Amino acid sequence: MRSDDCLRDLQLENLTDQLTRCNQVVERFPSNPGPLNERYLLLSLAGNDEAACADIRRAIVLARSAKPGQVDEQLRLDLKLRGELCDTGAASPQRQ
Which of 3, 9, 15, 21 shows the greatest Cβ crowding within 10 Å of its Cβ? Predict the structure, then answer.
């Protein structure tokens, strides 16, 4: 299992299975903000904005506490934008 397995071979018709696999990835890599960022997307697609935003908030904390260079700049940008969406209550991609 790799830290980027949450969205690997994503098929929306199997969203429940994707979430199950992603939960395992998050559990395996608890200090990595990447899987939480990916699970945010899956949870948003499933309509669970509250859990999605909780993941993003947790991922932001992890990214802030990471050593310099440990978190990719694209991931930092994703976290920032998704955090802002959560703050405005527009977390779900369907609402945009």
Answer: 21
Q: What is the Cα–Cα distance from 11 to 7, expressed in whole angstroms?
A: 9
- Render pLDDT for 37-84 as a digit per residue (tens, 0 to 9): 999 999 999 999 999 999 999 999 999 998 888 888 999 999 999 999
Quick check: 93 pLDDT over 60?
no
Widest pairwise Cα distance in the chain: 38
**pLDDT confidence bin for 91, thresholds 50/70/90:** low
The domain in which residue 38 lies consists of 12-95
Of the CA atoms within 13 Å of residue 38, those in its CB half-sphere come to 23
**61 residue type, one letter:** V
Number of structural domains found in the chain: 1
**Exposed/middle/buried for 26, CB within 10 Å: 0-12, 13-18, 19+?**
buried
CATH number, domain containing residue 21: 1.25.40
